Amino acid sequence: MARIDYCDPAQANEWTREILGKNRNANIFRMLAHSPSYFEQYCRLGNAIRFKGELDPIVRELAITRTGILCKAPYEIVAHKRIGKGVGVTDEQNDALENWRAASCFNETQRAALAFTDEIVTQQKPSDQTFNDIAGRLTPGALVELQISVGFYIMTSKFLEIFAIDMQPVADVV
Question: What integer best gives the mean pLDDT of the chain?
Protein backbone atom coordinates (compact mmCIF):
# COMPACT_ATOMS: atom_id res chain seq x y z
CA MET A 1 0.00 0.00 0.00
CA ALA A 2 1.32 3.41 -0.98
CA ARG A 3 2.77 5.46 1.86
CA ILE A 4 0.71 8.52 0.91
CA ASP A 5 -2.50 8.85 -1.09
CA TYR A 6 -2.23 9.10 -4.85
CA CYS A 7 -3.11 12.37 -6.52
CA ASP A 8 -6.78 12.46 -7.46
CA PRO A 9 -6.96 13.23 -11.19
CA ALA A 10 -10.24 15.04 -10.67
CA GLN A 11 -8.41 17.51 -8.41
CA ALA A 12 -5.47 18.02 -10.78
CA ASN A 13 -4.98 20.83 -13.28
CA GLU A 14 -5.98 20.26 -16.91
CA TRP A 15 -2.47 19.47 -18.17
CA THR A 16 -1.85 16.97 -15.38
CA ARG A 17 -5.20 15.26 -16.05
CA GLU A 18 -4.35 15.05 -19.74
CA ILE A 19 -0.95 13.44 -19.09
CA LEU A 20 -2.44 11.08 -16.50
CA GLY A 21 -5.10 10.03 -19.00
CA LYS A 22 -2.49 9.36 -21.70
CA ASN A 23 -0.75 7.11 -19.19
CA ARG A 24 -3.87 5.22 -18.06
CA ASN A 25 -3.71 6.93 -14.65
CA ALA A 26 -0.89 4.57 -13.70
CA ASN A 27 -0.02 4.67 -10.03
CA ILE A 28 3.51 5.97 -10.54
CA PHE A 29 2.17 8.96 -12.46
CA ARG A 30 -0.61 9.57 -9.96
CA MET A 31 2.05 9.80 -7.25
CA LEU A 32 4.32 12.04 -9.32
CA ALA A 33 1.35 14.31 -10.08
CA HIS A 34 1.50 15.66 -6.52
CA SER A 35 4.21 17.94 -7.94
CA PRO A 36 2.86 19.08 -11.32
CA SER A 37 6.03 20.91 -12.40
CA TYR A 38 8.31 17.96 -11.57
CA PHE A 39 5.78 15.58 -13.11
CA GLU A 40 5.93 17.53 -16.37
CA GLN A 41 9.72 17.48 -16.51
CA TYR A 42 9.89 13.82 -15.45
CA CYS A 43 7.58 12.90 -18.35
CA ARG A 44 9.60 15.00 -20.80
CA LEU A 45 12.86 13.27 -19.92
CA GLY A 46 11.19 9.85 -19.78
CA ASN A 47 9.74 10.38 -23.26
CA ALA A 48 13.12 11.52 -24.61
CA ILE A 49 14.75 8.38 -23.19
CA ARG A 50 12.14 6.07 -24.65
CA PHE A 51 11.42 7.73 -28.00
CA LYS A 52 14.06 10.24 -29.10
CA GLY A 53 17.50 8.74 -28.72
CA GLU A 54 19.83 6.80 -30.94
CA LEU A 55 20.54 4.05 -28.39
CA ASP A 56 19.29 0.67 -29.59
CA PRO A 57 15.92 0.21 -27.84
CA ILE A 58 16.72 -3.42 -26.96
CA VAL A 59 19.94 -2.37 -25.22
CA ARG A 60 18.05 0.45 -23.49
CA GLU A 61 15.29 -1.82 -22.19
CA LEU A 62 17.70 -4.52 -21.06
CA ALA A 63 19.62 -1.89 -19.09
CA ILE A 64 16.45 -0.36 -17.63
CA THR A 65 15.05 -3.71 -16.57
CA ARG A 66 18.39 -4.73 -15.07
CA THR A 67 18.40 -1.44 -13.15
CA GLY A 68 14.98 -2.30 -11.72
CA ILE A 69 16.24 -5.74 -10.72
CA LEU A 70 19.30 -4.34 -8.96
CA CYS A 71 17.21 -1.65 -7.23
CA LYS A 72 14.65 -4.30 -6.18
CA ALA A 73 11.76 -2.45 -7.79
CA PRO A 74 9.16 -5.01 -8.99
CA TYR A 75 6.90 -2.36 -10.56
CA GLU A 76 9.79 -1.22 -12.73
CA ILE A 77 10.78 -4.77 -13.66
CA VAL A 78 7.27 -5.74 -14.75
CA ALA A 79 6.76 -2.50 -16.69
CA HIS A 80 10.03 -2.65 -18.59
CA LYS A 81 9.92 -6.36 -19.34
CA ARG A 82 6.65 -5.58 -21.10
CA ILE A 83 8.04 -2.49 -22.81
CA GLY A 84 11.14 -4.46 -23.78
CA LYS A 85 9.06 -7.16 -25.45
CA GLY A 86 7.47 -4.40 -27.51
CA VAL A 87 10.85 -3.35 -28.92
CA GLY A 88 12.26 -6.83 -29.50
CA VAL A 89 13.63 -8.13 -26.18
CA THR A 90 12.98 -11.87 -26.21
CA ASP A 91 11.30 -13.82 -23.42
CA GLU A 92 14.58 -15.71 -23.02
CA GLN A 93 16.46 -12.44 -22.49
CA ASN A 94 13.89 -11.11 -20.01
CA ASP A 95 14.03 -14.39 -18.10
CA ALA A 96 17.85 -14.35 -18.05
CA LEU A 97 18.32 -10.81 -16.72
CA GLU A 98 18.60 -11.93 -13.09
CA ASN A 99 21.72 -13.94 -13.94
CA TRP A 100 22.68 -12.49 -17.31
CA ARG A 101 26.40 -13.36 -17.07
CA ALA A 102 25.57 -17.08 -17.24
CA ALA A 103 23.20 -16.66 -20.20
CA SER A 104 24.09 -17.08 -23.86
CA CYS A 105 21.16 -15.07 -25.27
CA PHE A 106 22.87 -11.65 -25.18
CA ASN A 107 25.20 -10.31 -27.86
CA GLU A 108 28.49 -8.63 -26.96
CA THR A 109 27.07 -5.09 -27.02
CA GLN A 110 24.18 -6.13 -24.77
CA ARG A 111 26.60 -7.85 -22.39
CA ALA A 112 28.82 -4.75 -22.28
CA ALA A 113 25.76 -2.57 -21.57
CA LEU A 114 24.60 -4.90 -18.80
CA ALA A 115 28.06 -4.87 -17.18
CA PHE A 116 28.06 -1.06 -17.42
CA THR A 117 24.60 -0.98 -15.82
CA ASP A 118 25.60 -3.34 -13.01
CA GLU A 119 28.61 -1.23 -12.11
CA ILE A 120 26.72 2.07 -12.23
CA VAL A 121 24.02 0.75 -9.92
CA THR A 122 26.21 -1.21 -7.52
CA GLN A 123 29.49 0.75 -7.57
CA GLN A 124 28.32 4.25 -8.55
CA LYS A 125 30.55 4.25 -11.65
CA PRO A 126 32.02 1.72 -14.04
CA SER A 127 35.60 0.56 -14.01
CA ASP A 128 37.83 1.83 -16.81
CA GLN A 129 37.70 -1.59 -18.46
CA THR A 130 33.89 -1.72 -18.38
CA PHE A 131 33.60 1.88 -19.58
CA ASN A 132 36.07 1.33 -22.42
CA ASP A 133 34.30 -1.86 -23.48
CA ILE A 134 30.91 -0.19 -23.90
CA ALA A 135 32.43 3.04 -25.26
CA GLY A 136 34.05 0.99 -28.02
CA ARG A 137 30.68 -0.41 -29.03
CA LEU A 138 28.44 2.68 -28.95
CA THR A 139 28.57 6.14 -30.43
CA PRO A 140 29.22 8.91 -27.91
CA GLY A 141 25.56 9.90 -28.15
CA ALA A 142 24.31 6.38 -27.47
CA LEU A 143 26.76 6.05 -24.57
CA VAL A 144 25.43 9.26 -22.99
CA GLU A 145 21.88 7.99 -23.50
CA LEU A 146 22.69 4.66 -21.85
CA GLN A 147 24.11 6.34 -18.76
CA ILE A 148 21.22 8.80 -18.51
CA SER A 149 18.72 5.96 -18.95
CA VAL A 150 20.29 3.95 -16.13
CA GLY A 151 20.45 7.02 -13.89
CA PHE A 152 16.85 8.01 -14.62
CA TYR A 153 15.62 4.52 -13.83
CA ILE A 154 17.67 4.31 -10.63
CA MET A 155 15.77 7.43 -9.57
CA THR A 156 12.47 5.96 -10.78
CA SER A 157 13.08 2.65 -9.02
CA LYS A 158 13.90 4.43 -5.77
CA PHE A 159 10.79 6.61 -6.14
CA LEU A 160 8.63 3.52 -6.64
CA GLU A 161 10.07 1.82 -3.57
CA ILE A 162 10.22 4.87 -1.27
CA PHE A 163 6.55 5.67 -1.88
CA ALA A 164 5.58 1.96 -2.00
CA ILE A 165 3.76 2.43 -5.30
CA ASP A 166 1.20 -0.34 -5.68
CA MET A 167 1.52 -2.82 -8.51
CA GLN A 168 -1.18 -2.76 -11.13
CA PRO A 169 -2.44 -5.45 -13.49
CA VAL A 170 0.31 -6.08 -16.07
CA ALA A 171 -1.79 -4.62 -18.88
CA ASP A 172 -2.05 -1.32 -16.97
CA VAL A 173 1.58 -0.86 -15.94
CA VAL A 174 3.41 1.88 -17.84
Answer: 95
Cβ-contact 62, 110 below 8 angstroms: yes
Check the CA dihedral 110-114-162-148 and report its sign: negative
d(CA 7, CA 35): 9
Spacing of C-alpha 81 from chain mean position: 10
What pLDDT, in 10s, does the model give residues 55-109? 999 999 999 999 999 999 999 999 999 999 999 999 999 999 999 999 999 999 9
Q: Which of 132, 143, 173 is nearest to 59 (CA)?
A: 143
**Going by C-beta distance under 8 Å and a sequence separation of 6 or more, which residues neighbour residue 63?**
113, 114, 116, 117, 146, 149, 150, 153
pTM, to two decimals: 0.94
